[in-house]
């Protein structure tokens, strides 16, 4: 489709709407928006035409988006991860185990695992420090793999075993190389292989719809586990390198633990519950809420807040893993 500069504005809008009307017969809503973004950029650069002002086109695309549900990659639970790491033999699955550990620990995309180099991984005795560079949103980050022995799984030793099998004659610097019959080869693993690793994990665990465990599975799994732990949005954003809080809020909204907290609060089970409770207390225009989070508070604590000489007391009994948010209304003359 070519839009000449001599064509009037109305004709341009008409041609553009016809183009998307035809495309909508075969393309999904998300693909239509991708085409819209590309077309908007191209026309703005080449023809100085601002497609964002084609309001009927925007309304048309929004109508097409109604009822559309994107297919997100399915996530693994912590029990499923532990089961795979414990039961699967290293003889055939050592590389997949290491990719699983790295992907979940660092919320890594498949491309990030593919680009990882040996210089990005530093063995610090009790931990592994991994640097992730050249990310999709240009935010370099790093993460730690702890020397934990949870459920008999030593994550550090699993990774070290794979690293020790690297052949000295390997000419490239890619961290992940092919692993066959208890030996590493010199061939680097391609990016498409990383996209299929979560599916192989799901197939071994006999999970339904294993094809939905795509290359984004490890990143979504890491985000979901962190959200379930009660970590704050700021911690969550730093961990995955997300710039937008809306993405983080989406994961937290879908967190099972968060839904349990809401359910307990609705049915009056939140008060006095040590780890999965949320309570609100109003004190003279000051709203104080306590919710489950990663920080720890000792039992039978008393929070005392002094405002203009007036003492406000809030007793917190039998609580742990609590965050306290205090909102003060300075416009209230009674304070």
From TrEMBL:
Keywords: DNA recombination, DNA-binding. One of its GO terms (biological process) is DNA recombination. Residues 71-264 form the Tyr recombinase domain. One of its GO terms (molecular function) is DNA binding. The keyword Lyase does not apply. PROSITE patterns: TYR_RECOMBINASE (PS51898). It comes from the Eukaryota. Pfam families: Phage_integrase (PF00589). PANTHER family: INTEGRASE_RECOMBINASE PROTEIN MJ0367-RELATED (PTHR30349:SF41), PHAGE INTEGRASE-RELATED (PTHR30349). This is Tyr recombinase domain-containing protein.
């Amino acid at each position: 489709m070519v839009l000449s500069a001599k064509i009037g504005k109305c004709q341009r809008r008409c041609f553009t709407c016809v183009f998307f009307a035809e495309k909508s017969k075969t393309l999904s809503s998300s693909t239509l928006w991708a085409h819209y973004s590309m077309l908007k950029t191209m026309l703005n650069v080449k023809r100085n035409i601002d497609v964002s002002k084609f309001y009927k086109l925007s309304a048309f695309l929004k109508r097409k988006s109604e009822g559309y549900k994107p297919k997100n990659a399915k996530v693994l639970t912590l029990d499923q991860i532990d089961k795979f790491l414990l039961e699967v033999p290293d003889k055939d699955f050592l590389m997949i185990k290491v990719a699983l550990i790295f992907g979940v620990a660092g919320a890594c995309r498949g491309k990030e695992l593919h680009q990882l180099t040996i210089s990005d991984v530093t063995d610090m005795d009790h931990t592994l420090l991994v640097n992730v560079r050249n990310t999709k949103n240009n935010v370099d980050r790093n993460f730690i793999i702890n020397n934990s022995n949870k459920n008999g799984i030593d994550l550090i030793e699993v990774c070290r075993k794979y690293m020790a099998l690297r052949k000295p004659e390997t000419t490239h610097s890619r961290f992940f190389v092919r692993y066959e019959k208890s030996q590493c080869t010199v061939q680097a693993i391609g990016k498409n292989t990383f996209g299929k690793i979560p599916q192989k994990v799901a197939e071994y665990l006999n999970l339904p719809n294993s094809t939905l465990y795509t290359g984004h599975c490890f990143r979504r799994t890491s985000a979901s586990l962190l959200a379930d732990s009660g970590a704050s949005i700021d911690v969550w954003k730093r961990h995955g390198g997300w710039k937008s809080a809306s993405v983080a809020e989406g994961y937290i909204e879908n967190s099972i633990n968060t839904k349990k907290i809401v359910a307990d609060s609705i049915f009056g089970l939140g008060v006095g519950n040590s780890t999965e409770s949320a309570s609100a207390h109003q004190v003279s225009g000051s709203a104080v809420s306590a919710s489950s989070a990663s920080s720890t508070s000792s039992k039978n604590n008393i929070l005392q807040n002094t405002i203009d000489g007036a003492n406000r007391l809030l007793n917190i009994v039998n609580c742990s893993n609590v965050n306290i948010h205090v909102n003060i209304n300075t416009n209230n003359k009674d304070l």
